[in-house]
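Hello Y.,

Per our agreement to keep a running log of every chain we model this quarter, I'm adding this entry. I've kept the format consistent with earlier entries: sequence first, then predicted structure.
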Amino acid sequence: MGGKFCVSLTSAKDNPDKATVAFVVANAAVASEKQTMVFLSTEGVRLCQKGYADDIHEEGFAPLRELMSNFVKAGGQVYVCSPCFKRRKLDEGRLIDGAVIVGGAKLVEFLGEHSPAVTY
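Predicted structure for the entry above:
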């Protein structure tokens, strides 16, 4: 198929259903051979910390940590909003594999190439 796809995620443990569904959709996109990026912002940035998602498991879905790991292994990118990360005083040394802290310009660059996007 080719092309790009962006999933913007603003939730974590405050709405585990949204967080889970966002990574289900992201996995579907990357499996469809889309260059796929998950952009974590506001509360969603907490998911970039190792161990944070370990206890999130919505009924009917794979555990969130598994969905996230599979996404990265399949070539998906996880971008973490830098100001949101700093505001929450999170630890750069505890980033999950595949997570990169970026500014908003990186999201604009990705979306500027006519990338469809969904937000959770």
